[in-house]
From TrEMBL:
Organism for this UniProt entry: Paenibacillus sacheonensis
Classification lineage: Bacteria, Bacillati, Bacillota, Bacilli, Bacillales
Any matching Pfam family: Staph_reg_Sar_Rot
GO CC list: cytoplasm
Name of the protein described by the UniProt record: MarR family transcriptional regulator
Keyword vocabulary terms for this entry: Cytoplasm, DNA-binding, Transcription, Transcription regulation
């Protein structure tokens, strides 16, 4: 590919992923509005519904969010009474995130969201699984390479 073509917007992997992510996230908005939560709050709750009572650091790693983004998000969910944050009695430096009864109950109402979103795409279940697998692999590869290049 020639240099000028390399810099065309439509030839950028990052832009294709960005635009697609924005459009897919828009599909979730009306369903999440019904629950009174944002997309970022939703994925945080998904992680907690999968594994409750986790340290903030572990949750941040799972969601690919730094503490500057995660802390206000958790504070908001706590003010909504969907979770609580408590110091770990074993390690006062660590904060454990726990769902409240309201947070656990919201899972039942959210259970219909994946199917409702899926119905708005033109992909078959097999195509979605394949695409998700490719994206997960790309994320893992990029994350591994970026972590190898960073200093702790």
């Amino acid at each position: 590919m020639e240099n000028n073509a390399l810099l065309e917007l439509d030839n950028q992997l990052c832009f294709a992923l960005y635009a697609c992510a924005r459009e897919v996230t828009k599909l979730y908005r009306p369903f999440l509005d019904e629950l009174g939560i944002t997309y970022t709050q939703y994925v945080t709750l998904l992680a907690l519904w999968e594994k409750d009572e986790v340290p903030v650091k572990e949750l941040g790693r799972r969601l690919y969010l730094d503490s500057g983004t995660l802390t206000p998000l958790l504070k908001k969910l706590e003010s909504m009474k969907l979770l609580r944050r408590d110091r770990d009695p074993q390690d006062e430096r660590s904060v454990i995130v726990r769902l409240t009864d309201d947070g656990r109950a919201l899972k039942e109402r959210a259970a219909v969201i994946p199917e409702r979103v899926f119905c708005q795409t033109s992909l078959s279940p097999e195509e979605i699984a394949s695409l998700r697998g490719q994206l997960q692999q790309l994320t893992a590869d990029v994350h591994t390479r970026s972590c190898e290049g960073s200093r702790d």
